[in-house]
Amino acid sequence: MFTRLLGFVGLMALALSNISSAQAQETIYVYGPGGPAPAMKEAAAVFEKETGTKVEVTAGPTPQWIEQAKAKGDIIFSGSENMMTDFTYQLEGQIKSDQVIPLYLRPMAILVRPGNPKKIKGFDDITKPGVKVLVVQGAGQTGAWEDIAGRLGSIQTVRSLRSNIVDYAKNSALAKKAWIDQPDIDAWLIYNIWQVANPKLADVVEIEPQYAIYRDAGVVLTQRAQANPQAKDFIKFLQSEQGEKIFVKWGWKAN
Known about the structure:
Helix content: 40-55%
Radius of gyration: 22 Å
Shape: elongated
Number of helices: 10
Largest sheet: 9 strands, mixed
Structural class: alpha/beta
Distance between the termini: 70 Å
Number of strands: 9
């Protein structure tokens, strides 16, 4: 009798363990930078409501989440192709370059103070003497300001912009802090989506077509999630018409 009781207890413990394991698998762990986060978090919330599968999105500067992602990440998203390439190294083989899926694009833009007191109309205006410019030199915007300034092959444009840059932030979050802490900065070169997410912080001025550049957000399954159907379904959702509408709402471009 005692032996049978022990066997029953053992079976119950195994059953509870299997239930606990199944429940743990119902959460998809997603990691990436702050720029795409508003759209990614809304997509996660909609997906969770429709499927019952919880999606936990952790976003921000890479050092804040990279170790967690190594331990339990299912999906990684990026803010540019060069950023995703960096992730393939930082995650030490947990993601593969040939499995990355580019999702949506967003353009670089000029953020100005509310009301646009400097009357900035485009990129040429922020190369004029006396305009104080903030740029991001890192993360998903490495080299972006130079790409814009050099688009037309004019070294003078690069020189003019460089002479106006007063802060080279290492990432977008630090740039946002600089924008708040230094109210004398006139213009902030960054993706348009940051104004969409912070409409009271700045107005947006589009960059002229001849200077315009775009970078994408990409997504990839980690190797541990290759056999996780829920994680695969979430990526399909991000690519769906419904996912596209969410990203477009936050300033992204599908085509």
